Amino acid sequence: MQHGSALREAVGSPRTTPLIGIYDMYSASIAAQHYDGMFVSGFGFAASYYGLPDIGFIAWPDMVQFTERLRLAFPSHHLLVDIDDGYVDPEVACHVVQSLERAGASGVILEDQKRPRRCGHADGKLILPLEEYLDKLNLVLSSRTDLVVVARTDATEEAEILRRAAALAETDADVVLVDGVRSVEWIERIRTVVGSKPLLFNQIAGGKSPRLSLTELTDLGVDVAIYSTPCLFAAHGAIDGALADLKNADGRLPVTGQTGSVELRCATELLEKNISRHHAHRAPAPV
């Protein structure tokens, strides 16, 4: 299957394509029941795999291995992978892109930050000189076969945002992302600058960008929306609440079937789907 081509076709559809940020195989298993596309979020992966903030701790072999596991479980879903700055060196970035394409990724996001890097919605971001980033981006583009490449800028100064967005739109990148966009007006200005190039918008709870529906994003000419942390933050709240309830109940588990509760059979059936997607004739195993 040409995973890049499939994502490229989805990006070209009339309505904004949503990609849901996941952080591990279990969250991906739940997301797969609701959406056709996933975003392998750097924030979520750093949090779940290392227990650390998204400031440059991710090692690229870990991300490649995670993508391999995702593709085995979800053979037909779109998988867009955050590769930060390509792990600094342009040749490493090319190697990572080729490895991810072989692992089954549909696309990658390559940013123009320099180290020490930050989450795209954090303060204090530093960016590479534009020509240095374009050199890296063009090497990556020449190294992919079918993979979708999203060119991302983390510029925060207004004139520089527009300058970089226009420059990224002139490359062979499939999609342009300006991260941390602060208003609808700025989405409109960026949309104008990038012309016909597909545009991606990143939403994160508590981030710098406005909370917008898919209908609103479609009306603004946004082609792809990534949701970086809905699974991670929902799990945070649910786990914290469940453990507080368990403590308050002196360690007695809640009654099975209560609103929001999950029990063994439900979890097992969810995970069985990660096998049966490869075998349409296979019935879920009994619990």
Shape verdict? globular
CATH fold-level topology of the largest domain: TIM Barrel
**Can you identify the CATH superfamily of the largest domain?**
Phosphoenolpyruvate-binding domains
Which strand order does the major sheet show?
1-2-3-4-5-6-7-8
The count of domains is 2
Write down the CATH class of the largest domain.
Alpha Beta
Using only C-alpha atoms, the radius of gyration works out to: 20 Å
Gross CATH architecture of the largest domain: Alpha-Beta Barrel
Quick check: average pLDDT? 92
The major beta sheet can be summarized as: 8 strands, parallel, barrel
| Strand residue percentage | 5-15%
Uncertain residue ranges? none
Secondary-structure element string: HEHEHHEHEHEHEHEHEHH
Count of helical stretches: 11
The end-to-end distance, rounded to whole angstroms, is 33 Å
Annotation, overall tally of beta strands: 8
